Automatic annotation (TrEMBL):
Regulates mitochondrial small subunit maturation by controlling 15S rRNA 5'-end processing. Localizes to the 5' precursor of the 15S rRNA in a position that is subsequently occupied by mS47 in the mature yeast mtSSU. Uses structure and sequence-specific RNA recognition, binding to a single-stranded region of the precursor and specifically recognizing bases -6 to -1. The exchange of Ccm1 for mS47 is coupled to the irreversible removal of precursor rRNA that is accompanied by conformational changes of the mitoribosomal proteins uS5m and mS26. Belongs to the CCM1 family. Binds to mitochondrial small subunit 15S rRNA. This is Pentatricopeptide repeat-containing protein. It comes from Immersiella caudata. Gene3D superfamilies: Tetratricopeptide repeat domain. PPR repeats lie at residues 600-635. The lineage of its organism: Eukaryota, Fungi, Dikarya, Ascomycota, Pezizomycotina. It holds the Pfam family PPR_2. Keywords: Repeat. It comes from the Eukaryota.
Length: 844
């Protein structure tokens, strides 16, 4: 890269040729000085010297003494040195003062050569930043600080010389306190003072790469009370990683305070999330080593751990061994050193050395947490030959902890034994947790009654499922059934549901296998029960669904003795329906018919939903009719939601007039069934969703008479009041206000205007009747919304101007077909068919 040159111009000329410079003596009164920038510190000092000279020239009198030839010779010598890039240690200002320099302001111009060879002019602030690595504000702050310190020291010296030693000492302490407040540095978690953090000594493009890191170091909110924030961690590594390449060219320019402060931020782990902590510590430690810095003991330990985590396991362990004399022998680092060794050696499989390190730690006078043995337990449990040693290590840890052993410690040990298939040890650890170590079941073929019951198993399974250890829970089910203790169907249904909620292919397969295992157990039970006492032929297990077995067609590894319940079928029905597995749902329905379990509305709803999604709406309605009529299943709110979604207007994009006409008839039939069925709303979700679905279905089918009757009926039977957003959606004909397409926005704006007009008309009539429209009661506001809805339906039907006597026949026919002709207006009938219960009514 070519050198960057800066011109110092004392005559306002932007360019002076070399020949003019050589004829400076006695010919050109305006001296042209060209100097090449070298070390930033020297350049800054030279600049200050020349500025002082320029100030003296400006302050000189108009009458100047004649220039001595010897002075001109010395001036020429100085210029020649500057041209050759030589900067003298000192400049005799009398030489510059005696030179023939014109009066007026001195114009100093600075230039820099860019990497592409072009020359650009710099401002004074840019020049200062480029040469010294400090921006204008920081440079000014340093200059101000220097002046303040110099003036204060001189004043204190004078006071001491005048005999005011005591007062000078008081002022000196006050000065130090004030200076610390004004120029305070960053404070780490151990209250380390890092001073004024700044990286300098870089210029040009290298300085620009470091600018963002310097900006981070100067941020006042980086560390507040010794605790960095999440953004501080991100910005710190972002700035440092961007500056690493530039810093590597001169590591010595980075002060120890900056390194320690960066380490404190990068290695932070308390209170904020730092997922890449070890990776960043590893990189920073390598850079500090490259810079020739000696890491502190705590930094060395963390660097060794970071090296291990980053995959350099053997190297990290070797470094740990070498540090046994320097770090392992110091009281302040003894515990951390050996705990790190136990962790690394256990994870690396060197269990013997890990045990020796643990013995050294536990045998010392230091206060040690015995939970460090958990890692050794894990390393011993994974090998069958050392299972017994793992158990002995657990018992020793339990003895050392005593009453301080927490439930979480038991859970961790149990999880380790379950993961290593040490089922007997896992069960014994859980028994220790439940009975405080007073019951020993190891080696027993028959478990005590206090353990061999579903209540005890249920507590263990609930704890494992709640902790997310689903595979461990399944192992417990299999192991305890071998011991003669079978889990209850409720507990297994919870495990199946937990597997399904993970939505992973492996767990979905496990859930399906266990559920069908339970279903086969139920079918076998029904088959054996049906045979009665007749045993004149060999017993045969009944399995009409062989392809529900594993793909190989073999018997499953685990034959569950627990029998499927209605909840088991419901869980699997919802699973198959949500995944669109219609064939699997049909198979499940076939098994359900043979299981001799009272059918539930939940399974019926899933069947209706699945058939509808599969394009078999007629089959879905047929199942509904069969299950409600022949099997006496009572429908619920979800049943009618599923039924209204079978209508073609809710399934097809393109409307078919013939299908829409059939939707009108079916919609009215569904509404009549809904009114006369014995069900109640059980949740606010269905309370808001069902009326919305009904109104939109009839709107899309253009059944305006049925829509008007449905609005009146739901008002009386559901206590339904249409909310404002629903009115706008119905007016716009779109089912959601969140779809921000251009067409939807236009429809919503038009619909909003229509609803406002209908509301204004209604309030105008109320005002004419003498009602205070500014203070409407809650019932009046509800009545207003219903009035707007009915008028909106008439607008949609283009019947707002049709006389009432012409509309009544259509409304009466709709009311009869919808089963509410004899109900609306009859208080006794309305109370009999109300679908909202007391607690839900209060909540709404």
């Amino acid at each position: 890269m070519p050198p960057r040159n800066f011109a110092l111009d004392l005559s306002r000329s932007s360019y002076v040729c070399q020949s003019c410079l050589t004829s400076l003596r006695g010919v050109k009164p305006n001296a042209q000085l060209w100097l090449t920038r070298h070390a930033s510190g020297l350049a800054r000092r030279n600049q200050r010297r020349l500025e002082v000279a320029a100030a003296k020239v400006k302050a000189a009198e108009t009458q100047k003494p004649p220039v001595d030839p010897k002075t001109n010779e010395e001036l020429q010598k100085l210029i020649t040195q500057l041209q050759n890039g030589e900067l003298p240690d000192s400049v005799d200002l009398s030489i510059l003062q005696a030179a023939d320099v014109p009066d007026g302001p001195v114009d100093v111009r600075y230039f820099e050569q860019t990497p592409n060879g072009q020359t650009k002019q710099l401002s004074t602030d840019d020049f200062n930043m480029s040469t010294s690595g400090l921006d204008a504000d920081v440079g000014k702050a340093i200059d101000d600080l220097e002046r303040q310190m110099s003036a204060t020291v001189k004043m204190l010296d004078r006071m001491e010389k005048q005999g005011m030693q005591q007062k000078a000492d008081v002022l000196r302490r006050q000065f130090k306190t004030s200076l610390k407040k004004q120029y305070k540095g960053k404070t780490g978690p151990e209250a380390e003072e890092y001073g004024l953090l700044r990286i300098s000594g870089f210029s040009g493009s290298k300085h620009r790469a470091i600018a963002s890191l310097n900006s981070f170091l100067a941020r006042e909110s980086v560390v507040k009370g010794g605790v960095p924030k999440q953004k501080d961690l991100v910005d710190c590594w972002k700035g440092y990683s961007a500056a690493r390449k530039s810093l590597s060219s001169a590591w010595q320019n980075v002060s120890r305070e900056v390194w320690d402060f960066l380490w404190m931020i990068v290695s932070w782990e308390k209170g904020v999330e730092n997922p890449n902590r070890m990776r960043h510590v590893y990189v920073l430690a390598k850079d500090m080593k490259a810079a020739g810095l000696m890491l502190s003991d705590s930094q060395q330990l963390l660097a060794i751990e970071a090296m291990f985590v980053e995959g350099w396991k053997e190297e990290a362990i070797e470094a740990w061994k070498k540090a046994v004399v320097t770090i392992g022998s110091k009281p302040e680092t003894f515990t951390d050193y050996y705990e790190l060794g136990v962790r690394m050696l256990s994870l690396n499989g060197d269990v013997e050395r890990a045990q020796r390190a643990a013995e050294t730690l536990l045998g010392s006078a230091e206060k040690v947490d015995a939970r460090i043995l958990i890692l050794i337990i894990k390393a011993l449990a994974v090998k069958q030959a050392t299972n017994e040693k793992a158990w002995e290590t657990y018992r020793r840890m339990r003895d050392l902890l005593g009453e301080s052993m927490m439930l979480e410690d038991y859970d961790e040990v149990i999880s380790l034994f379950l993961g290593a298939n040490c089922m007997e040890y896992a069960l014994q650890a859980f028994v220790d947790m439940m009975f405080s170590g007073t019951v020993d079941i190891r080696g027993r073929t028959r478990l005590p009654i206090a353990i061999s019951n579903q209540f005890f198993i249920g507590k263990w399974l609930k704890r494992l499922i709640g902790a997310g250890d689903l595979n461990g829970a399944y192992k417990v089910v299999v192991y305890l059934q071998e011991k003669g203790v079978s889990a209850s169907p409720i507990q297994l249904n919870g495990l199946i549901g937990a597997w399904i909620r993970t939505e992973t292919a492996e767990n979905l397969e496990k859930a399906e296998d266990l559920a069908w295992n339970m279903i086969r157990s139920r079918l076998n039970y029904v088959h054996m029960r049906g045979r009665g006492s007749s045993m004149d032929q060999p017993t045969r297990l009944y399995d009409p669904y062989p392809h529900s077995r594993p793909s190989s067609g073999e018997e499953p590894e685990f034959n569950c003795s627990a029998k499927a319940t209605a909840e088991t079928f419901s869980i699997m029905a919802e699973n198959y329906s949500s995944r669109g597995l219609h064939d699997a749902l049909e198979q499940l329905w076939g098994a359900f018919q043979h299981a001799a379990i009272g059918p539930t509305s939940f399974l019926m709803n899933q069947l209706i939903r699945s058939y509808s999604q599969d394009g078999k709406a007629d089959k879905a309605i047929e199942i509904y009719r069969d299950m409600t009529t022949n099997q006496n299943i009572s429908p619920d709110a979800y049943t009618f939601l599923a039924l209204f979604n079978t209508l073609s207007v809710n399934r097809l994009i393109i409307r078919d007039p013939e299908l829409s006409a059939r939707d009108v008839r079916r919609g009215r039939e569904f509404f009549a069934d809904m009114v006369h069925a014995n069900w109640k709303f059980e949740s606010p979700e269905t309370f808001h969703l069902l009326p919305r679905t009904i109104l939109f279905s009839m709107l899309k089918a253009q059944d305006y008479a049925g829509m008007l009757i449905a609005a009146r009926a739901m008002n009386q039977l559901f206590d339904f009041t249409p909310p404002g957003p629903l009115l706008i959606e119905l007016a716009a004909g779109t089912a959601t206000l969140r779809v921000q397409t251009k067409r939807n926005i236009a429809l919503i704006m038009e619909a909003n205007s229509l609803v406002d007009n209908l509301t204004r008309q209604h309030r105008t009539r109320l005002a004419e009747q003498g009602v205070d429209i500014d203070n409407l009661a809650k019932s009046q506001k509800s009545e207003e919304l219903h009035h707007v809805l009915e008028n909106l339906i008439l607008v949609k039907a283009k019947a707002q101007d049709v006389r009432r006597d012409k509309l009544m026949p259509h409304l009466d026919m709709a009311a009869k077909e919808m089963g509410v002709y004899d109900i609306l207006g009859d208080a006794e009938q309305v109370a009999k068919h109300r679908k909202i219960i007391g607690h839900l009514e209060d909540a709404l």
